[in-house]
Write a structure and sequence with these properties.
It contains 2 helices and 13 strands, in the order ββββββββαβββββα. It is mainly beta. It has a 6-stranded antiparallel β-sheet with strand order 3-6-7-13-9-10, with no helix packed on it. A hairpin with a 4-residue loop joins strand 9 and strand 10. 20% of the residues are buried.
Length: 192
């Protein structure tokens, strides 16, 4: 998103400015956030969060805890507008980066973490790719790990996928680059 204009102070011309929103390459549109709060969590239940925020690609986040939690827990799913200074963006065509976190619990207490997301068919076609090229990456602090995902469904405008995520952090919904796919295809096969 690029904003350009003239800054006016009273009726005095101050100058022309151009501001490029640096995160728009990775998270176009409006930043979005959804928070689900629980008074307690039982280890006997599986919980499903279905964000009501249309700007989030996340359809649902399923989780289970390893032990009962008798304190308030908030889980936040967001499309962030800012990133840490040392953050490394994935080397792929990014549809959306989402962050899933909780302040109250250690991520190790969560046993099942399944993320279901959607991606517009139009975006995939405009990238000249297919649904088979859609990937989910998880950020591990300095690199992006490819998370195994499964195609779940197809509706009029969207493809739906799901994958088991390793923890709470940043996740990138991407299209595998043509160059990377070609490099993998061109790798020599070593026979023993």
């Amino acid at each position: 998103i690029v904003f350009a204009g003239i800054v006016m102070l009273s009726d005095f011309y101050v100058g022309r400015f151009t501001f490029e929103d640096s995160f728009s390459k990775y998270n176009p549109g409006t930043p979005a956030s959804y928070i689900e709060s629980y008074k307690s969590l039982s280890s006997n239940e599986e919980y499903i969060i279905r964000p009501l925020e249309n700007d989030l690609a996340v359809e649902s986040f399923n989780f289970k805890v390893s032990e009962d939690v008798n304190d308030k827990v908030r889980i936040r799913i967001e499309k962030p507008s800012t990133f840490p200074a040392d953050f490394k963006f994935p080397e792929a065509e990014v549809y959306q980066i989402v962050k899933i976190d909780t302040d109250e619990l250690n991520a190790g207490m969560f046993e099942i973490r399944k993320l279901e997301f959607r991606i517009p068919k139009k975006w995939v076609m405009n990238s000249e790719r297919t649904r088979d090229d859609v990937r989910l990456f998880g950020y591990n602090g300095n690199t992006w790990d490819d998370i195994n995902i499964n195609f779940v469904d197809e509706k009029q405008f969207d493809y739906f996928f799901e994958g088991n995520v390793p923890g709470f952090d940043f996740f990138a919904i991407v299209i595998e680059s043509i160059q990377k796919k070609q490099a993998v295809k061109d790798e020599p096969v070593v026979q023993e």
